[in-house]
Amino acid sequence: MDFTQYNTRDLWQKDIDHVIHPWAYYPEFEKDGALVVAESEGAYVYDADGKRYLDGIGGIWCVNIGYGRPEMAEAIADQVMKIPYFNAFTDTTTPAVAEFANRLCSIAPDNLNHVFMSTGGSVANDSAVRIAHHYFSRLGKPEKRKVLSHVQGYHGSTYLAMSLTGMPGSHKNFHIDTDLVAYVECPYVYRRPDGMTEADFCDHLVSEFAKKVESIGADTIAAFIAEPILGSGGVIVPPQGYHQRIAAICKQNEILYISDEVVTGFGRLGHWFASEAEFGIKPDMITSAKGITSGYLPMGATLISDQIHDVITSQAIGDNVFSHGFTYSGHPVACAAGLMNMHIIERDGILEHVQQVGPYFESALAALKELPIVGDVRGKKFMLCVESVANKETKALLPDDAHIGKRIAKEAEKRGLIVRPSGHLNILSPTLILTEAQIDNLVSTLRASIETVTDELVRAGYKIG
Ligand SMILES: Cc1ncc(COP(=O)(O)O)c(C=O)c1O
Questions:
Q1: Which CATH superfamily is domain 3-65+349-459 in?
Q2: Cα separation of 407 and 425, whole Å?
Q3: Which of 248, 306, 253, 244 is nearest to 281 (CA)?
Q4: Strand pairing of 146-150 and 221-226?
Q5: pLDDT-based confidence at 366, cuts 50/70/90?
Q6: How far apart are CA 423 and CA 435, in angstroms?
Q7: Predicted local distance difference test score (pLDDT) of residue 28
Q8: CA of 287 to the centre of ligand 1 (A)
Q9: Residue 336 CB less than 6 A away from ligand 1
Q10: Helix H or strand E encompassing 39
Q11: Which of 46, 117, 163, 185 is deepest in the core (most CB within 10 A)?
Q12: Of ligand 1's atoms, which has the minimum distance to the CA of residue 60?
């Protein structure tokens, strides 16, 4: 690695001057700017000055196979030289698109044998809703068009995907389609009502869901979209049995179940897809992105059931044609990257590695619960989160001006670890190749960072405990 090629200050300034950073907190961003991440290898990234960081966030939920895979570079370059692009519209395709679709469907649950390709998670979710609308319209039920989603669910940032997203903070100062989407309660076990057991909480959520369906009217609801574990909303693992019970209500009411596996797919929970393998449900559609190419190239995929496919393709002539598609609905280079990604995951036993090392990661991180500001440590395998509180008994949060998640992330960054701040949370979604020794290092660095920040807060007069 040659870091002399980078002028960090110049890059830093150009970035501040011209790049729009989503979700940046400008009072701080204008002062601190962005960390210029310039090179990478394995589980680590390097800033433009050559400082090494253990990447605790996998780029952002995506570099599943780790950095610097020469075979990915070769597969991508090879495809560029064979054919960089040709459309897969009405009557043309490319070998990479056909092979990728075939391989992808072979690893998906057995009812999902067809894929609509796009460029990322938001568009994969938009496409799922558009497919649901087209499906019911073709069945003669165009009034079935509303979509249910979770409060705190995150499904992306296009107009439609942000409407599906149940985060009121992200809706502020924008417009969303309130006529299309209705939100159901977040299955936030840690913050369930006092005195309720987890099982009671599950009963409560299921009963509220059923009531919501009844009050809106099943004949107007096309789909329910949900992440198996809510990711950006706070790594929220629903109570045991929740997904299966909700899926059963959906089935009874002819509501399509869309499982948003943009984060949970491609090994993060130790399976190609988590819906069936981890949570025992067979969705009507699964959406995927991020880990599908390990972030090496943009790609989104909407996998659909045979049943939906049969309806949307039957008599698809004239007005009935499925008129939804993008220039990059099947980009050969992204597909070549996707094929190589699946090959590497399989060849290197990455799913098995996550299954073996994931529980170690969970329990190593859970030890942080003994710290005075750590209220909860949750998640599964390589999708984990630490929730900070001012008082563990009452679960009261620290005031916003403590910027707790951000402070911890900044302290960790100084120590050579990248973790993601999100309000009072710190989220971990590293590459899936971490060894136990790297996990130990990650956890001890995070622990030291939380301890330092706690001392700072106490000195600054924040009340803890
Ligand atoms: C669960 C989930 N769905 C959808 C998206 C949107 O994906 P993209 O940013 O690729 O559009 C994200 C992004 O973080 C996500 O976490």
A1: Aspartate Aminotransferase, domain 1 (3.90.1150.10)
A2: 11
A3: 244
A4: parallel
A5: very high
A6: 29
A7: 87
A8: 10
A9: no
A10: strand 37-41
A11: 117
A12: 14
Distance (Å) from CA 261 to ligand 1 centroid: 9
CA 312 to chain centroid:
28
Q: Among the residues of 403-435, which ranges form H helices?
A: 404-414
Distance 262 CA to ligand 1 centre (A): 6
Which ligand 1 atom is at minimum distance from the Cα of 123? 11
Interhelix angle 350-366/332-347, rounded to 10 degrees, is 70
Q: 379: which strand partners?
A: 384
Q: Is the CB of 293 under 6 A from ligand 1?
A: no
Averaged pLDDT for residues 82-89: 96
Q: How far is the CA of 456 from the centre of ligand 1 (A)?
A: 34
What are 377-409's pLDDT values in tens digits? 999 999 999 999 999 999 999 999 999 999 999
Q: Where are the domains of the chain?
A: 3-65+349-459, 71-347
Test site for ligand 1: of 60, 61, 122, most ligand atoms within 8 A of the Cβ: 122
Say how many Å lie between the CA of residue 142 and the centre of ligand 1. Answer: 28
Q: Do the first three CATH levels of 3-65+349-459 and 71-347 match, i.e. the same topology? A: no
pLDDT at 39 exceeding the cut of 90: yes
List, as own/partner pairs, every contact residues 356-359 make where C-beta atoms lie below 8 angstroms and the sequence separation is at least 24, other chains included. 357/434, 357/435, 357/436, 357/439, 358/269, 358/270, 358/382
Tokens of residue 287, six digits: 């959406």
Indicate whether residue 231 lines ligand 1 (CB < 6 A): yes
Does ligand 1 come within 6 angstroms of the Cβ of 261? no
In whole angstroms, what is the distance from residue 231 CA to residue 385 CA?
Answer: 9
Distance CA 204, CA 194 (A): 13
CATH topology of domain 71-347: Aspartate Aminotransferase; domain 2 (3.40.640)
Instruction: Write down the pTM of the prediction.
Output: 0.98
CA–CA distance, 362 with 354 (Å, rounded to integer): 11
Whose structure tokens read 């209500």?
249
Structure tokens at 36: 């210029």
Question: What tokens does 123 get?
Answer: 């568009």
Residue 50 CA to ligand 1 center (angstroms) comes to: 30
* pLDDT for residue 316 is more than 90: no
